[in-house]
Amino acid sequence: MSYSRKEFIVFLAIILISVSATSQISESSVTDSVVSFKKKRKKKKSKKVKLPNIDLSHWKVTLPSLNDEGKPYEISPPEINNFASIKEAKPYMYIDSVKGAIVFRAMPTDSKTANTKYTRSELREQIVPGDNNTNWTFEQGGRMKGKLAIEEITKDADGKYHRVIIMQIHGRLTNEQKELIGAKDNNAPPILKIYWDKGKIRVKTKVLKNKAVNNTAILLDDAWDDDEGYNFPTEVGFRKFTLEVKVEKGKMVIILNNSEYAVYEGIDINRWNIFENYFKAGNYFQSKDEGSYAKVKYYELEVSH
Predict the structure, then answer these.
(1) Bridge partners for 276 per DSSP
(2) Best exposed site among 102, 113, 159, 193 by fewest CB in 10 Å?
(3) 183, exposed or middle or buried, with CB in 10 Å at 0-12, 13-18, 19+?
(4) Does 1 score more than 70 pLDDT?
(5) Nearest by Cα to 106 from 297, 296, 294
(6) Handedness of CA 106, 112, 115, 116 (dihedral sign)
(7) Cβ burial 251-276 (10 Å sphere, 16+ → b, else e)
(8) pTM of the predicted model, to two decimals?
């Protein structure tokens, strides 16, 4: 069969168009397959696990639950290093592996420590792991720094957020001081309480009622009163922030976000050196309202002396 020149050219053009279309379909199929494969690979990629930057080997924790003796449940070193696997700790102290933080959760329960009316999920410094009797004075000095955030907190009947204490320096009587004043335990007043209060950081400290009190009467709780308190200007709200506490003989400094300072000096701080002290950090919830609670996240926490 013979074709004219014009018919041959038309025939050849049809073949070329057909081959080009087939090639484009094939390339499109390959491209779609590659995109689909990449999507599948992305879906299979697991999320990274983040862990908090906190060494618990010199801390014990008090939780808002009771032990077999009807006292607040505590976990001391070295067991606290494995708190994530301890059944009693899981509702109140657990790891958020997405954010890389330890969550401290507290609410009103029957678990109350001596001389308090509120419950806590809170760490207590132990210079010697497992021992409460080795502490430090302001003359010896100390520093605590944490990175934290309020995750959740309830409101009261007036629609105002409840308060929570997130850091403390607590005083402690030596055994000799305890016997001298006839105290029933070794508790002394807290020289420092740092609150999350309606989105701001509030600092409370102690002042002497009588600046000339003698060295025996000064050991009594009644010798001390609360100061008026100080609110840092910056509102932290529910954002992550840093808090640092530095103490030395005659001086105490609290630093918010490495930029705002509250400095305490004078006779009250100078005379506080008579007490031993220890740091506390976590969630000391300040409400007894039914159904109230708070969750405090600590991403970092470090202490030095």
Answers:
(1) 172
(2) 159
(3) middle
(4) no
(5) 294
(6) positive
(7) ebebbbbeeeebebeeebbebbbbbb
(8) 0.84
